[in-house]
């Protein structure tokens, strides 16, 4: 291949991957040889946070470099405005032809948002309300509901079929790029669904971890939960009495799904290596949020605990960057956006909050780096999965240095103001000791609360979300009645979602 002066860009975003369940991050049980090899060729950022612990807002923030309160995408029902430039627009402005394959979770008619081509779309309709995804015998297991724990085990998860299709198309893309003998670098974004629930792995993947996955490190019984918002959430999601059998079965399946994801990534990395593209390709691997897998009695995402809000962040560019490095500074997923643009010599997004990680890689002890990250989680009226009728919440987290503050705006269902939570992650990495009422930390609480509330107005956000929800009262029935065509969609076959019978 001719020498490439700028790197190829390969951005990979999986769904609901807790970074703790990666060998290179320290898990002694999980088998992730391909992610481990990627980390050995690059840099692990050990404290990277998503902009929102739920799919659509996190992905919109990653694309734009903007927090949800800036791009106004707070929930899974909201549309990213097509006039907001994304990192794909910036790469295109710099001469790349950005291509996307797989999961992006775009809502609305714009299914590109700056990409020149997109292969293998999302499994849901482009238009909210046009139809309901049919998960066959695993109905209901893709959402935050107890049924996803009850119907866990071995069988087939349609999201695995999606990711196999995405990986195969990615290999085809790379083969075509190599065959063209072009001097132009490629820019490719890959969206994967695994290890998102349904918590159903193939029998071979499940059996690999049968009896090997430890129980949650810090389980918490429902009656021991003290925070009013988390009490409501656990009750709302049916987590009062999860059985030990469900915990073991679900965690075992999750580990199997992570290994299946890793195997598919191996197909992609091996293709890059086969064509001599690995050396000058900047690979950034992350996920849209984590997965709590039973820690503190919680599952899925939707909270600001580490297992939910922290994401994997691995950057590899063997031609230019050091290898086998770990950096424990506090970073944001938005920083990956800025890093790819910096490496590609692409224009900075004008309203991005992302910071290029390249200077930090050169000097991990850089005193000018602000160890700070924010994350938001807001709900919308009428969302049965995440809200309580018309009651909605606006919550925000800040991690600065060793401290994390979680701010809950407004009142709980009894009309009482909800307290914040404060954790010192240096002394208490498992977040078991809430210090919000400790008098000696009152100055820290005041400082972090000020950071959370600076330029973030939860009352305005509440009003904006309600306006968007009112719009949906027209656009959803429109989609139901008119069945507009999907421009880019992957057809999920409900027969691809099932549990083996018997489970043995």
Which descriptors apply to this entry?
9-stranded mixed sheet; single chain; 16 strands; 4-stranded antiparallel sheet; alpha/beta
Account of the 3D structure:
- With 504 residues, the protein is an alpha/beta fold.
- It has a single domain (8-371, 491-499), classed as Alkaline Phosphatase, subunit A.
- Helix content is 32%, strand content 16%.
- The protein has 14 helices and 16 strands.
- Strands 1, 2, 3, 4, 6, 8, 9, 10 and 11 form a nine-stranded mixed β-sheet that branches. A four-stranded antiparallel β-sheet has the order 12-13-14-15, covered by helices on one side. Strands 7-5-16 form a three-stranded mixed β-sheet.
- Strand 13 and strand 14 form a beta hairpin.
- Helix 1 (33-40) crosses helix 9, helix 6 (158-180) runs parallel beside helix 9 (244-274) and helix 7 (203-209) crosses helix 9 (244-274).
- The chain is globular, with a radius of gyration of 22 Å.
- The mean pLDDT is 97.
- Give the CA-CA distance, first to last residue: 51 Å
Mean pLDDT: 97
What is the assigned CATH homologous superfamily? Alkaline Phosphatase, subunit A
Query: What is the C-level CATH assignment?
Result: Alpha Beta
CATH architecture: 3-Layer(aba) Sandwich
Query: What sequence of helices (H) and strands (E) makes up the elements?
Result: EHEHHHEEHEHEEHHHEHEEEHHEEEEHHE
Provide a short characterization of the protein structure.
The chain is an alpha/beta fold. Helices cover 32% and strands 16% of the residues.
